[in-house]
Amino acid sequence: MSARHEPVAKIELLIRKPVADVFDAFVNPDVITRFWFDRSSGRLKRGATVTWYWDLYNASTLVRILEMEKNQLIHIEWDVDTDNPSNVKWKFEDRAERGTYVSVVHSGFDTGAEDVISKIVDSTGGFALVLAAAKAYLEHGIGLNIVADRF
Known about the structure:
It is built from 4 helices and 7 strands; from the N terminus they run βααββββββαα. By secondary structure, the chain is of the alpha+beta class.
C-alpha cells in the first residue's frame, strides 16, 4: 500500500541579501508592492487579515496570516473569502554570507476539482516569478514588471 501525498506547488530560490531584509520585503507593503502586487490593506502580522490588490487585472485576494516567526516563517491562508481557500508558507533560511534561501509551498488545493493540476502548475509558475522578481529587486534594485507582463 502506498501513502498518498497532498499535491503542492513548491518553489525555492536563494536571494543574496540578509534574512532580515528578505523577510521584511514580504511583510512590508512598501517593499512587496515593488515586485509583486500593487497595493495592500496593511502590513503582515500574525492574526491579521489583509487584502492584496493587482490593479491592472482588477483582481484582489484576501489573506489571513496564520503564523509568523520573524526572519523564519510566514504562513497565510490565501483566498479566505472564497469557497476554496488554500495555504501558502514561506520559509526563510539564513545562509549567512550567501544570503537567504526562500522556500514557498502552496498547499490545500481542492483535489476533487477537474483543474487541480492546472492550478498547481499556475501556482508554481506564479510563485517562481514572484521569487525571481523579489531577487532582482532586492539584489539589484530592478523592478522587472514580471507580474504585470505575465498575462
